[in-house]
Amino acid sequence: MFSKATEYGIKAIIYIASQSMLERRVKIGEVVEHIDSPVAFTAKIVGALVKVGIVQSITGPYGGFYIDRHRMDQIKMIDIVTAIDGDSIFNGCGLGLKECDDEQPCPMHYKFVQIRADLKDMLNSTSILELAEGLKSGKSILMR
Amino acid sequence: MFSKATEYGIKAIIYIASQSMLERRVKIGEVVEHIDSPVAFTAKIVGALVKVGIVQSITGPYGGFYIDRHRMDQIKMIDIVTAIDGDSIFNGCGLGLKECDDEQPCPMHYKFVQIRADLKDMLNSTSILELAEGLKSGKSILMR
DNA sequence: TTTATTTAAGATAAAATTGTCTTAAATAAA
DNA sequence: TTTATTTAAGACAATTTTATCTTAAATAAA
What we know:
Strand order of the largest sheet of chain A: 1-2
Structural class of chain A: mainly alpha
Radius of gyration of chain A: 17 Å
Oligomer: homodimer
């Protein structure tokens, strides 16, 4: 469904957010230990999310990554997905046609419309805050 | 959403089916001209679908690919997708956890459940016949 | 100011996916 | 039987994605 890069990105953000709720900045090494992902690759992905403003970072000793607490409920999953994978999962044709619309649809066009709309709605309405709270309360996990 | 291999496979099957409705066997060269895909790669994919019984083939002059007319409504899109991409799109964890279930869910587990169920239902209930009829009647297209 | 720590950035490498090419096998027609 | 045509199968190559490695920049503490 998503690329590995997006999977790592989502998990990293959820972990960072869960720690930011405790006023803790986290280093990339701590992040990957908690989400079971390759460190350098994850660092690059989180770095891209810093550039886009989803995460904040401080370099040097006592540095690390964190997320502004009051922004956690404004940042939605769709922001992370589109920042890494782009929007082709929502807008591209399910059968790979360069163009595909209601006028000249691919054979599966109308079959996909609802499912994609539902996926988009879900990602649009799911905040980092919500997922980080689920993790912190033990309702969900990031590795096993 | 799907791999290129699955995209090509679905389009090839729809085209072959649309021609089988006219009692026409089609060669791989004709298929790729109508779905705009690389010929050797497509041949390999369609070959895999032959092995699995979704398509029939005859080698040699006057040979080609065809689909049993009375099976077209029994073959569903899910059969093509799982034959090529496997079932990870339905069963795997959305965030890539090796295991993820109601007992120990990833943070997005319940968010994904409905969307994946809908996707599966759609692929389960969509037959080759239905899509090939849409193509033949001009309601849908396979390239542009 | 020096050193240690950490993120930033970009080059390089490995793996997976996508795509091509060659040869073999089947089969129909001449 | 020979030839031409077509699918079958597998080796090979290119591209994309995933992952690693190296160096630079920032910054805090000693």
